[in-house]
Automatic annotation (TrEMBL):
Record protein name field: Inositol transporter 4 isoform 3
Membrane topology per record: Multi-pass membrane protein
Keywords per UniProt: Membrane, Symport, Transmembrane, Transmembrane helix, Transport
Organism: Theobroma cacao (Cacao)
GO biological process: myo-inositol transport; transmembrane transport
Subcellular localization(s) per the UniProt record: Membrane
Top-level taxonomy: Eukaryota, Viridiplantae, Streptophyta, Embryophyta, Tracheophyta
Superkingdom assignment: Eukaryota
Transmembrane segments: 30-53, 73-91, 103-123, 129-146, 158-180, 186-208, 346-366, 452-478, 523-541
Amino acid sequence: MVEGGVKKADKTEFTECWKTTWKTPYIMRLALSAGIGGLLFGYDTGVISGALLYIREDFQQVDRKTWLQQETIVSMAVAGAIAGAAFGGWVNDRFGRKKSILGADVLFAVGAIIMAVAQAPWIIILGRFFVGLGVGMASMTAPLYISEASPARIRGALVSTNGLLITGGQFLSYLINLAFTKTSWTWRWMLGIAAVPALVQFILMLSLPESPRWLYRQDKVEEARSILERIFPANEVDDEMNALKLSVEAEQADEHAIGDGLIQKVKGALSDVVVRRGLYAGITVQVAQQFSGINTVMYYSPTIVQFAGFASKKTALALSLITSGLNAVGSIVSMTFVDRYGRRRLMLISMAAIILCLVTLSFVFLEAANHAPKINQLDTNFPTNATCPSYLSAPKPSSWNCMSCLKAGCGFCANGANEYSPGTCLEFSTDLRDSCRGQHRTWFKDGCPSKFGFLAVVLLGLYIISYSPGMGTVPWIVNSEIYPLRYRGIGGGLAAVSNWISNLIVSETFLSLTKALGSAGTFGLFAGICFITLIFIYCLVPETKGLQIEEVEQMLKTGYKPKLLRGKSKGDIQSA
């Protein structure tokens, strides 16, 4: 996925993880039980892409009245996630990691049930907000719990499982969507079944302990020790307790130095030149990640596939499954390359490839629109008053094609013998749609029959392959390395908020943009934004691979400049 971070783990750490968890399976039980939060995170952000196809069919006002309503159904989970992440930190510190995860499970389950029984679009929106609250809390609590309940030597590998479960949850959501296409309640099953893993995690977490670090901070030292005794060999417990004591004391000293209040912490961070420059880099890569358009694919991929000319919902879901699978594979690929080739280089290559894919995708959609099937003016299978009113009143109806018909808010009934031959432009209504299908013809309302359609799907796949190993995971790694230790929490939090807000903007405007600019114009716009963010990444984001915290801090204090902008100076700390 696109929201939430993955702590980098190398091959040695994964090998050590396997050996350690084989000897102490309790550690893996802790990680996987908490990781279900990541699975729910991925599922609830991905499932709406398929469910929306059927929601539009059941609620005509969603399909017909306004694109804004569709966008709100999709993006309300993101709005809820912003709120959930905003107060999730306070809940974590006040009530503990375990109770936060249990609370997120309740929100997931309540939201899923509300959506499953919804009788109106606004009830679905309410359910999506509840789910979003759960997503926001799970996005920060699950990796935190795993990190604090894991041995340091395998922490990265275990936290990485949460990231893999997020992309796995997205992939699962597409499988579930496809599985329920033939059922009578379609979208209700798709959205409601998320209550099941939430219930499973709730039951599992009841039997698991609180984070030992949180307990230690609450002066529950013996409870923390008893948990560490179940995680570590007996001869290592004293060392771990001592390390925990030193770590908590250092953390509390930092908190005392920068202040307790959120506003005070933000002011302190912004007044420090090193943190400011870190934020320039951290926020740049987070905003760039979202404005690459990734969540238009994750949230709307079946709809985009329909834009490409695949009217069948089942076909759209099946093809979308491929893009989700590629995203999951890309997350694994990133773990292999990010320490070999570096963060900065991987992001620059990834963004350049994304731009190429988006430009080509824009061109393909433009060609598809220009070569859309013409309108058959002599079709006698429908009454005259069924013809699209805008077509009848057009000054040059002979110039119309399928795309002109859809832009006018009407539906296109394809030619029964050959979809690419001229078809009929009809007034948009359920009765006429059913009449068209009753003649064994295909009804198009989001995209037109196109010989370019399969090429568009291939390009979507290439886009995901370009995005996932680079811009998909690296921005989160950069944000875990770019800030001084005492400001890492507030710096990472500000960058994460910028990511969620950018996500909300993109998901809330995508369908409106396609209506105003067309699919070609929208993907062209994203390509232009990506080009601008590529320049910002080149100018503002340094390489942090292999650097100690002190080295990163010194580099930012001096002021980072890429190689092309710094001239011949020998005093540069970091090369481009």
